[in-house]
Write a structure and sequence with these properties.
heterodimer, A: 112 residues, mainly beta, seven-stranded mixed sheet, four-stranded antiparallel sheet, 55% strand, B: 112 residues, five-stranded antiparallel sheet, 11 strands, 54% strand, globular
C-alpha cells in the first residue's frame, strides 16, 4: 500500500483565496483524521470521519473551514476565504479498528 | 481542558547512549497511549503503543513505560543512532479508536 496520500504537498496562496487540500486514506481504513500543525499550537485535530461520516468537528477553527468525505477513498479540507493565520502544515491520517493512525506527508500551506 | 505535556522540549544524547523521553498526562481516564516520531518534512510515524492495563511494552530498541500512579509516560531508545534524531510526540486516547490528544513534542538530537 502506498500509505496515506495528500495533495498538494505545498501550496502558496493569497489571502482571500479558496484552498482545497486532498487526502486519500489507506484502503480499508474506517477512520480519517485531519490535523493542523503549527509551531505555536503543535498538532491539533480538526475533524475526523468514521465510515465517511463526520464524527467530531469541534476542532475546526471556524466556518471558513469545511471538510467532506464523499467516499471511502477521498476526503477534502477546504478553507474559504483563507487568511495568513491559516498558514500551517495540514496532515491527513487514517486508521482501522486497531487505532494506530497512519499519517500522510502533509500539505504545507502558506497564505500571504 | 486536560492535555498531554512534555517535561523537556529538547534532548541531546551521544550516539550509542540510551535516550529517555518523558511525557506527563493529566487525564486519568486515558486508557491508550502512543509514541510518534516525526522527522523533518514528514508526517508523524507510529513507534509504539501501550494500554492502561500494562506498565511496560518493548519493541525493537524502544521501550514504553507507563506509570498510572503519577500519570507519566516515557519512551526509552536503546543505543541511540543518528537516524533517531527527530521530534517525538506522545498522544493519549480516552475513547477507543478515536480522538487523540498530542503533546507538544520533544526534539531529540543525536550527537556524533
Amino acid at each position: 500500500d502506498a500509505g496515506v496520500i495528500q495533495s498538494p504537498r505545498h501550496e502558496v496562496t493569497e489571502m482571500g483565496q479558496e484552498v482545497t487540500l486532498r487526502c486519500k486514506p489507506i484502503s480499508g481504513h474506517d477512520y480519517l483524521f485531519w490535523y493542523r500543525q503549527t509551531m505555536m499550537r503543535g498538532l491539533e485535530l480538526l475533524i475526523y470521519f468514521n465510515n465517511n461520516v463526520p464524527i467530531d468537528d469541534s476542532g475546526m477553527p471556524e466556518d471558513r473551514f469545511s471538510a467532506k468525505m464523499p467516499n471511502a477513498s477521498f476526503s477534502t479540507l477546504k478553507i474559504q476565504p483563507s487568511e495568513p493565520r491559516d498558514s500551517a502544515v495540514y496532515f491527513c491520517a487514517s486508521s482501522g479498528q486497531q487505532e494506530t493512525q497512519y499519517f500522510g506527508p502533509g500539505t504545507r500551506l502558506l497564505v500571504l | 481542558g486536560e492535555s498531554v505535556g512534555l517535561h523537556l522540549p529538547t534532548l541531546s544524547v551521544q550516539e550509542g547512549d540510551n535516550s529517555i523521553i518523558n511525557c506527563a498526562y493529566s487525564n486519568s481516564a486515558s486508557d491508550y497511549f502512543i509514541w510518534y516520531k516525526q522527522e523533518s518534512g514528514k508526517g508523524p510515524q507510529f513507534i509504539i503503543d501501550i494500554r492502561s492495563n500494562m506498565d511496560k511494552r518493548q519493541g525493537q530498541r524502544v521501550t514504553v513505560l507507563l506509570n498510572k500512579t503519577v500519570k507519566h509516560l516515557s519512551l526509552q531508545i536503546a543505543a541511540t543512532q543518528p537516524g533517531d534524531s527527530a521530534v517525538y510526540f506522545c498522544a493519549e486516547n480516552q475513547v477507543y479508536g478515536q480522538n487523540f490528544v498530542f503533546g507538544p513534542g520533544t526534539r531529540l538530537s543525536v550527537l556524533p
